[in-house]
Design brief:
Elements (H helix, E strand, L loop, with lengths): L4 E7 L3 H9 L4 E7 L7 H14 L6 E5 L17 E4 L5 H5 L2 H10 L3 E4 L1 H6 L5 H15 L1 H15 L4 E6 L5 H15 L2 E6 L3 H8 L7 E4 L3 E5 L6 E5 L2
Parallel strand pairs: 1-2, 1-3, 3-4, 5-6, 6-7
Antiparallel strand pairs: 4-8, 9-10
Helix pairs in contact: 1-9, 6-7
């Protein structure tokens, strides 16, 4: 089998898992990780990922995008001279669970789920006591105590739509710490705690170049990504 020369452009929440499975792959890799904070604005994801794609040299066999559809943040991203490969998923949790079908099954069973993984815990302040206390102090300094209390009440109201804190375990990093962190967050928020054994199959296929059409979208040069609003999640469309 040919050894592929691949560029990975991914959200920083996936760096542990992607680096680990890439390290045991026969293929060669160059990595570029982008900040989690881009998720606050899908347009910013699109701009920064497209910029990273445009800046990549033409010598790669493919550019792998470590994202899901991400609130349509990858929609419109265009392949230049090198094909793009992206998992068919609404977000990166699909990669940790192993398939979009597993993600869909869990979401339908527990629609109020907030996901925790090593990258999510490390790269943003996940819901829990630590987040509440830090945000409250920052708001109090900026806006005063009364306004801080109001802002925190608004945030806690937003958290009321969730009922489960689910940790996906791929046994990467200090799993005991991440599990304890998630369990404590669930207890503080009065959410149900769940621990799900992750499946690395999709990540392994991703880095090994096993890109079947059911699991991955391949975007050839002069094509771009478009959301499909169905189980395919996204498709490749030729530029006009």
């Amino acid at each position: 089998m040919k050894i592929l020369n691949l560029k990975i452009i991914a959200c920083n929440v996936m760096w542990r898992e992607l680096c680990y499975y890439a390290s045991i792959s026969a293929n060669k890799f160059e990595f570029k990780y982008l900040p989690w904070g881009l998720h606050r604005d899908p347009d910013e994801i699109r701009r920064e990922v497209q910029k990273a794609v445009d800046e990549s040299v033409d010598s790669f066999d493919a550019i792998l995008l470590g994202y899901g559809l991400c609130s349509r943040g990858v929609e419109g991203i265009t392949a230049c001279k090198t094909r793009l490969v992206i998992p068919r998923g609404h977000d990166c949790i699909t990669c940790f669970l192993g398939s979009k079908n597993k993600y869909k099954e869990y979401f339908e069973a527990y629609p109020g789920t907030y996901w925790y993984t090593p990258g999510w815990i490390e790269n943003h302040l996940a819901p829990g006591k630590e987040r509440y206390e830090k945000n409250y102090e920052e708001y109090k300094k900026k806006y005063g105590e009364d306004n801080a209390q109001y802002l925190m009440e608004m945030e806690q109201d937003w958290f009321n739509k969730y009922s489960t804190a689910a940790y996906v375990d791929l046994e990467v990093g200090d799993a005991d710490y991440y599990k304890t962190y998630t369990r404590q967050a669930a207890e503080w928020l009065n959410w149900r705690y769940d621990e799900i054994k992750g499946d690395p199959a999709l990540l392994k296929h991703f880095v090994n170049g096993d890109w079947n059409a059911a699991e991955f979208l391949i975007v050839e040069p002069d094509h771009h990504i478009e959301a499909t609003n169905d189980d395919n999640i996204m498709r490749s469309v030729q530029n006009t």
